[in-house]
Amino acid sequence: MHNGKRFSSALLMISLLFFGFGLPKNVQKKVEKEVIKLFEVTDFSMNAMVIPEALNAKLPTKITTDNLYILSEGSEQLGYLFVDQAPSKTAKFDYLVVFDKELKVIHSKVLIYREEYGGEIGSKRWLKQFLGKTGKDRVSHETNIDAISGATISVRSMTNSMDNLLQTIGILQENGVF
User: Fold this and answer.
1) 20 to 30 A Cα–Cα from 127, which one of 31, 98, 151, 173?
2) Is the predicted pLDDT of residue 143 greater than 70, yes or no?
């Protein structure tokens, strides 16, 4: 019986190793490619941030072990990564936001867009509007983020997602999480 428990435990560990909860493989590969390009590193780690439940309940964007990471190269912290999905007209798209150590947006990217229309939100030109934003900034498709003809729903969705994320970062900073 004792060996059966060991076997079950080993099987569980192997299953978690190969089928772990983290990011989907296709998203993970795109995130890794962006990190390598942005920081010019090849050996880095992404460690999930864990937020206390009571604080997480107050956040506009809920933090899970699959969306907010501390990015490090060896013992040196490079910054933070946030990966999530936002709704478009009939599907969702995956996006990435990278913060520096001071929690200022230094990169954003639409990783996977699944609609026929609205993919223009993935352009570097449009996404650069978010660069330099911090937890103290607000973004809105009505006031300070440009519209894109034919991508209204996606523009609103990405802008709302970014605004919620910035508010979340601000609240986490105020609560001493970073």
Assistant:
1) 173
2) yes
